[in-house]
Structure formats: C-alpha cells, structure tokens
Design a protein that fits this description.
The complex is a heterodimer of chains A (322) and B (326).
Chain A lengths: L29 E12 L2 E12 L3 E5 L6 H8 L7 E6 L2 E2 L5 H6 L2 E3 L12 H7 L9 H4 L2 H21 L15 H13 L5 E5 L7 H16 L3 E5 L3 H7 L2 E6 L2 E6 L1 H4 L3 H8 L7 H4 L9 H14 L4 H7 L1
Parallel strand pairs in A: 3-8, 3-9, 6-7, 7-8
Antiparallel strand pairs in A: 1-2, 1-4, 4-5, 9-10
Chain B lengths: L2 H11 L3 H19 L7 H17 L5 H23 L4 H20 L4 H4 L10 H5 L7 E4 L2 E4 H25 L2 H11 L1 H6 L4 H24 L11 H14 L6 H25 L8 H22 L8 H5 L3
Antiparallel strand pairs in B: 1-2
Helix pairs in contact in B: 1-13, 2-8, 2-11, 2-12, 2-13, 3-4, 3-5, 3-11, 4-11, 9-11, 12-13, 12-14, 13-14
Classes of the chains: A alpha/beta (322), B mainly alpha (326).
Chain lengths: 322, 326
C-alpha cells in the first residue's frame, strides 16, 4: 500500500499577510481583491464581504458552516452570479460585470460542487474542450480541418499527459458518464487545468471521494502550487484544510469572520464554536505519527484505539502482501 | 389491390422533393436538438419562412430562383436572431415554449389577409416556377427507370434538392467533428461546465440556431419548389412530422435525419396507398377511405411515442449513449 511511502513533505507558504491576521487583512501579493461584495436572495443576505484578498501562489481554503455563502461567493467571483454591488479585481484588472466565460479566459477557472462532467462526450473530448484559444472553435475554421489539426494534436498530447497524471488515461475513450463519482471529480479538475489557469477555484473537491483518491487529489492540489498556480478551495474536511492550506478564510452568515494561517485560525474560539466543534483538535496526522506534533490527551486516546485496530488479526490480508 | 402500383409509389417517394425537404429540415433540427440540445419546437416556421421567402422574392420582387434561395437563407438567419437573442439566455425548456409560439405567429402572419398582396393569405402562392424551369439544363423528355421515371422538371427539382442536401450533410458532418461541434455537444451536456471553460455559450447556441435554421428554411424551399406554397402545410403538425423523422433516424447523428425522412415518407406513402385499398377491398369494413387517410397520422403519433420510449437514440444512434440517458 501507499502508506509505506511517506508523502513528500512540503513547506507551507508563510508571511502572506501584512499586519495582524484579522478579517480583510492586506496580503503581500494578492491575486484577487474583493471589495464590499454583497448578494441577497430576497431578505437573506447570502454574501456580505467587506474586503478580502487572496494571496498569490498559495493554497487558500474557504471554510464555514453550511449556508455561510461560500459557494455564492464563488459564483460571484467567477461571474456565474451577479452581486447586488461590489467590485473585485483579478491580477489588477476589474472583474465586476465580466461574464463567466471571459473570467475563465483570463485564467481564473473553477470546478463545481456537483460535478459537471459532460457525460456523453468521451473523457478525452472533455479534456480537449478545456483548452483555450482553439482555432477550430470558430465555425468557419472548423470546416477546414487542416487549419486546426496540428493544434488539436498538441492538445491531445497535453490532455493525455494530464490524464496520466490523474490516472485516467486508460479511460480516455470512455464516455465521461461511465466514470465513478470520484473519477469525475478528477476529470473536472484535470479539464480545468487544460487551460493553464493562474487561479484554480475548487468547490468541495473532496466531497464524495474515497480516502485513497483523496490522498492523490491532495497531491494534485499541492502540485498546482508547485507549478506556480494559486488555489482557492471550499472544503468541509478539516484535516485536508489543515494539511494543505497555507491560509484559511472562515465565513459565516455571508461575512468573513476570521482568517489566518490554518493552525492559528482553527484555534480561534469563535471559529471552533461556530463551525468546527470541540473535537477538531484531534489531528489524524499526528495521531498516526505521520506528522510531528503534540499529542494531546484526546489524541493519544485515539492513537491507542488505532493501534488496537492495527493489531487485529487479518491473515488473508497478510498472505496477500507477502 | 394493385400491389405493384402501391410499391412503385412508395419507391418513388424515396427521392421525392417532400422527402428531401423533410430530410433538410430534420438535419436542421439535428443541429438544434441532437448536437446543441436546443429544444426547437418551431421547425415548421423555418420551413414556412424558406418557402415564402423563395416564392415572394420571385413573384413580388422578380428575383431569379437562386436569389430566392439566398433570400430564404437570409430570412431564416433574421428569424433565428429574433428568436434566439431573447430566449437563448433562458433554460432549454423555455426555448421549446417560445419556438412553438413563434411558429404559430409566423404561420398566422402568412395567413392573414393584411399581407394578401404578398402572401396570398389562405390561397397561398403558386406560379413562381418559370425562372427555375428556365434554368433547367436537362432537355425535355422523360428519364429514369421503374418507379423513378420523371420528366425533365421532376429531375431538375430532385437534382437541385439532392445537391443542397448533400452540401448540408457535408457541412454538418465536418462541423460536428471539429472543435466547434465539440463545444456544441458540450453545451448539450451541461452549459455551465462549458461556460466555466471559457466558451461563450450564448454565441455558440446562437450559431447553432442559425445554422440549423438555414437548413430548415432550405427544406421549406425544396418542399415548395415543384408545387405551391400552402399556409395549411406549415402548422404545428409539420413540426411533429419532422421530429418523428429525426427521432426515427437518430437525433445526434448526421445520417439519421436522412434515413428518418426517407422511412417516414416511404411509410406514409405506403399507408396512404394501402389503407384506402384495404377499405375498398373490404378488409377494413368499419371505416371509410377518408377515415383510412386519417388513420395514418394516428399511426405516426403512436410510432413517435413508441420510438421515444423504446429507442430514444433512433435507428442510427449510438447504443452506448442510451445506457446513460439521464
């Protein structure tokens, strides 16, 4: 199993902010800056963000209870929904009122909470659709294959490279509809990467994905940062947030209530009360000994439980491993 | 019963202008529905616009027949823009409602006596053939063999129709294999996903509506070319006949609409010959010959239902696609 191989330890980005880590703190190098963005549905103010900056080339997690407005904020920032008012800039250029497809063309791509794989297109077609600046996507040019054939071949090479990285290359000729839920998540992420984005926005990338796949998805997300991309993601899995996020933004009732480095924010009593609950301090990474950390009383209790599980007899499994 | 005559009529219908017209309209509908997922329930309006544009530009404006075809294509583009710009931002189902209403508006505009001078209102239009027939390079006489024997005019109409049809098939075949077609099929599956990949979904949907609409109007032209323009033809039932032809052959295929139109007209001709013959020879004693003519439309309705339930991908559709129908 993969547990024999220790995951590559990566250094978290620090020193991202200027001054105290309060909601709306300025960042050293922000890629996305939002100002007084509000959106209400009837009487309900779903999003009311006064000021928010997303640091460049870092992994930022957006967390908060259900109905906190995380997905709505995502939709607003990507042009899928229109705010009541507010402005936001991406790499210094205003994005307010810019339609979704242009937002994506500028390098800010997103995935969806409910996966949107294009079922009756093959996996490879899904991937190729993600590429930017395709000559053959013009109707007239499309009628003359020699105009776009060469570019298409280049996209295919790139697509297969990405599919191999995401372990979907064997499925390339299958309909996307025949993939499992987790594989579709992978496909959607890989497809988003076809456009060489600068900011990748992932809406609950881990929802409904089995643990083994979660591990590889985590690696993929960390890889994105290594390749110079910025990642903003919504997630409820706190262990994932703790391990991969460089910065955490907490939303509740439409507002940003806290932000900061993960280990600081998650100890914030307000955040613990409002969202995390009291037992979130138990870090599975520490419990299993894969990450250095202080073992609290609670954690060591859990650790001994896990030890017990490890020693349970499983002859069939042992035979297979030898 | 004269079986030979019945079969001969049926065989003849295979390359009839009506079949070619339906095939063109069905290809247009395949672009709309099969590839781009646009639920167009007003294909009859496109055919009406094609037929009327062709006839009016010849009769009223004295244009040659080929210019009439260009006007018909232009008319359908304008109609697509009027129809598409306000509705294509809405969800798919709205387009179905709007197109069915728009088709009725178009039909009633052609039917009203207000424009009698141009449209002939309820009488329709006829007598626009001279320009087309003058251009006929075939010397007078009858040609062909067996059931496919026509005079020079009959062949001229069929040749022009088949050339237009071949061009339409070629364009759809090539464009649906291009990245442009891939975007359309992506939009059919989930337009938000395609939008998130940086494609201007609205523009693509409009382009699809225009392209399919041009084929629909050309279908109307070919349908009206040898005979006359009758406003009664372009009702909602025409839309459903074309839909039947499309679904029969396979909505998301290039050759399906062709095969569908062919089978549709083959079966319709067969039934319209066989049923009255059955009545007169006493095999169907409980109905009159008029009722027998109506029976075939009932059978069309029933077969449309059976098709959608048991073989939604059509004859030429991919069986694999059916497995994952939402």
């Amino acid at each position: 199993m993969s547990s024999d191989v220790a995951p590559r330890q990566r250094v978290k980005s620090t020193g991202l902010h200027i001054g105290d880590a309060v909601p709306g703190v300025a960042k050293v190098d922000p890629i996305l800056i939002a100002d007084s963005v509000t959106r209400s549905f009837g009487g309900l103010k779903a999003v009311d963000v006064e000021h928010l900056e997303i640091p460049r080339n870092a992994i930022t997690a957006l967390i908060g209870p259900n109905g906190a407005g995380k997905t709505t904020l995502f939709n607003l920032l990507t042009g899928f929904d229109k705010p009541d008012h507010g402005t936001w800039t991406f790499e210094g250029r205003s994005l307010a009122g810019v339609p979704a497809f242009k937002v994506a063309q500028r390098g800010q791509v997103r995935t969806f909470q409910l996966t949107k794989s294009l079922g009756l297109l093959t996996v490879l077609e899904n991937m190729k659709l993600g590429a930017k600046g395709q000559r053959g996507e013009n109707f007239w040019a499309g009628l003359f294959p020699h105009v776009w054939r060469k570019q298409e071949d280049a996209f295919e090479v790139k697509a297969i490279e990405l599919l191999t990285r995401f372990k979907l290359d064997t499925k390339k000729d299958d309909f996307a509809a025949s993939l499992s839920g987790g594989q579709r998540k992978l496909l959607e992420m890989a497809r988003a990467l076809m456009s060489d984005p600068t900011l990748v926005m992932l809406d609950e990338p881990m929802a409904g994905v089995n643990p083994a796949l979660t591990q590889s998805l985590l690696e993929h997300i960390l890889d994105l940062k290594d390749q110079g991309m910025t990642v903003l993601f919504v997630e409820h899995d706190m262990h994932m947030v703790r391990h991969i996020a460089d910065w955490v933004v907490v939303m509740a009732e439409g507002r940003v209530v806290a932000e900061g480095p993960p280990h600081v924010v998650m100890k914030d009593p307000a955040v613990v009360d409002a969202y995390l609950g009291a037992h979130q301090d138990v870090d599975l990474g520490v419990v299993t000994g894969r990450y250095a950390g202080e073992l609290t009383g609670e954690a060591s209790e859990l650790a001994s439980e896990i030890q017990g599980l490890d020693h349970s007899p499983d002859p069939a499994g042992k035979e297979q491993t030898t | 019963m004269d079986w030979l005559q019945i079969l001969s009529n049926t065989a003849s219908s295979i390359i009839g202008p009506a079949t070619i017209g339906y095939a063109l309209a069905a290809i247009g509908l395949a672009v709309h529905f099969g590839f781009a997922g646009l639920l167009n329930m007003g294909i009859a309006a496109y055919m009406a616009i094609g037929a009327y544009s062709y006839a009016i530009s010849i009769l009223t404006f004295g244009l040659p027949w080929w210019a009439g075809i260009l006007v018909a294509m232009g008319g359908s583009v304008v109609f697509s823009l009027i129809l598409g710009i306000p509705t294509l931002r809405l969800r798919g189902d709205y387009l179905a409602i709007v197109t069915i209403a728009a088709a009725e508006i178009v039909r009633l505009l052609f039917l009203t006596t207000t424009f009698d001078k141009y449209t002939g209102s309820a009488d329709g239009l006829s007598g626009y053939h001279s320009s087309f027939r003058d251009a006929n390079p075939i010397p007078p006489g009858t040609y062909g063999f067996g059931p496919w024997t026509y005079n020079e005019t009959g062949w001229w109409v069929r040749i022009v129709g088949l050339v237009i049809l071949a061009l339409a098939v070629l364009i759809v075949y090539v464009s649906m294999r291009s990245p442009w077609g891939r975007v359309l099929r992506g939009i059919r599956e989930d337009e938000d996903a395609v939008r998130a990949l940086g494609k201007n979904v609205f523009s693509y949907k409009l382009q699809a509506l225009v392209l399919g609409g041009v084929f629909g109007s050309l279908g109307g032209v070919v349908y009206a070319m040898p005979s006359n323009v009758n406003p009664g033809v372009y009702g909602t039932s025409l839309t459903f006949f074309v839909w039947t032809a499309l679904l029969l052959g396979g909505a998301a295929t290039v050759f399906g609409p062709l095969l569908g139109a062919l089978i549709y007209w083959g079966v319709m001709t067969l039934l319209s010959n066989i049923l009255p013959a059955l009545v007169t020879s006493g095999i169907l004693p409980f109905m009159s010959t008029t009722q027998a003519q109506t029976l075939r439309f009932i059978l069309v309705g029933v077969s449309l239902m059976l098709l959608v339930i048991y073989r939604p991908q059509g004859i030429l559709g991919n069986k694999k696609e059916l497995t994952f129908v939402k």
